[in-house]
Amino acid sequence: MPLWLREHRWHQTPTAVFLSLPLRGARATPANIFCSERYLKVSIPPFLFEAILYAPIDDTNSTAKIGNGSIFFTLYKKEPAMWDSLTLENADKEKLQCLRENAVLKAQQKAKEETEAKKATKEEHKKYALEATMKLEEAERKRIEDLKEKERQKVAEELELWKNQQKDADKYKSIQKDGELHQEIGQLKERKNEKMSKTRIPYEGTSKTRPKPTKGCRGSCSIFSPNAKEEQLPSPRSAATIKVNFTPRVFPTALRESRVAEEEEWLHKQAEARRTISADLSELEDLKEEEKNPDWLKDKGNKMFAMGNYLAAVNAYNLAVRLNNKLPLLYLNRAACHLKLRNLHKAIEDTSKALELLTPPVPDNKDARVKAYVRRGTAFCQLELYTEGLQDYEAALKIDPKNQNIEKDAEKIRHLIQGTMQGS
């Protein structure tokens, strides 16, 4: 049987009723209080307080404050008037039961409407996040297409310039070649004329001397004799193009400069990773290649977080974790999003996972470990688990003892713990 709380004090104004209800050592929470337009109930086993109010109140704006072993109610009247009493007196049991049932039904209807409103709001947020993501992806795709088009135009211009330079070089070579050919022909003619002048027979009246016959000739030999060999001009050299084929390679370095064994091992690991991703994430076949990169998804989540779109950032981090669950920064950033969304238990799970991955503790992961302890401590404190939160803040102070902000927050938590112990 419940113990009825009969002791209470109340006073009123034309617009509000102020009610004080002692708790007799019991500890109350907001979940122990139920209030509607005409019905007020406080259930703290084994104690029970129930009141059918004299007139309707505005249950939306009315408040209840728990402290100093009492509950203080501020009930705002729907119509300004002075009540004759706090509760409805001289009412039969059927009317009281009807009022109770109506209050419960209205509370259930109100809770259902709030749930539907939250659901609709959540759907709107998801829709907005999807639209924002699509806009960002469209802008990124357009930027990439513009860059490709600019590079295409640049390459086309460079190719056209190279062709013109090749044409000019070919013309210059042909002109130079023709000039050299004419020069060689002129030199050969000069040599021929010199030889002819040396072997020409002088006129008999002018000189008594006669040239000695050359070896192999009987008497005098003429340059026009059939045995004389004329020098012939060499034919121009023929031009040709030599095609060079290279062995196809994945890496840009030359084969003689590369480490074949290490490269083959790297390619094998990449192929295994792609096969694993394809097997585990068959539903993500429509994603682009860059969208399957955890680093790209992490940067995208960081951009969404900076814009205040925490749901979209969580979605990006979730996909990145599915692709690579060994990056502590993914869990650390997702925990920050959960703190903003008030998903405190998920924030604690992500920070704990990040701390597991940030082992062994080294100077390079010092900042990440401090962030993980501070974010987990914040989540504990928001859950009113101040002792666990203080432990995490003290762990962060051991890593970074010169951080004054962490020291101030830890001091606030110590005061909260002392106040809670004194109140209890």
Walk me through this protein's architecture.
The protein is of the alpha+beta class. It has 3 domains: 3-88, Immunoglobulin-like, CATH 2.60.40.790; 91-186; 292-418, Serine Threonine Protein Phosphatase 5, Tetratricopeptide repeat (Alpha Horseshoe). Helix content is 55%, strand content 9%. It contains 9 helices and 8 strands. Strands 1-6-5-4 form a 4-stranded mixed β-sheet, with helices on one face. Strands 2-3-8-7 form a 4-stranded antiparallel β-sheet, with no helix packed on it. The model is unreliable at 201-220 (pLDDT under 50). One of its GO terms (molecular function) is nuclear estrogen receptor binding. Residues 203-223 are annotated as: Disordered. It comes from Pachyramphus minor. This is Dynein axonemal assembly factor 4.
What is the overall shape?
Answer: elongated
**What is the chain-wise order of helices and strands?**
EEEEEEEEHHHHHHHHH
Number of helices: 9
Identify the strand order in the major beta sheet.
1-6-5-4
Mean pLDDT across all amino acids = 82
Major pleated sheet: 4 strands, mixed
Query: How many structurally independent domains?
Result: 3
Characterize the quaternary organization of these chains: single chain
Which spans have pLDDT < 50 for at least 5 consecutive residues? Answer: 201-220
The value of Rg in angstroms is: 49 Å
Please give the share of residues in helix: 55-70%
What is the CA–CA distance across the termini?
Answer: 27 Å
- What share of residues are in beta strands? 5-15%
What's the total number of strands? 8
CATH arch. level architecture of the largest domain:
Alpha Horseshoe
CATH homologous superfamily assignment of the largest domain: Tetratricopeptide repeat domain
In terms of structural class, how would the helical and strand content be classed?
alpha+beta
- What fold name goes in the CATH topology slot of the largest domain? Serine Threonine Protein Phosphatase 5, Tetratricopeptide repeat
GO cellular component, one term: nucleus
Subcellular location: Cell projection, Neuron projection; Dynein axonemal particle; Nucleus
Coiled coil: 88-165
Organism: Pachyramphus minor
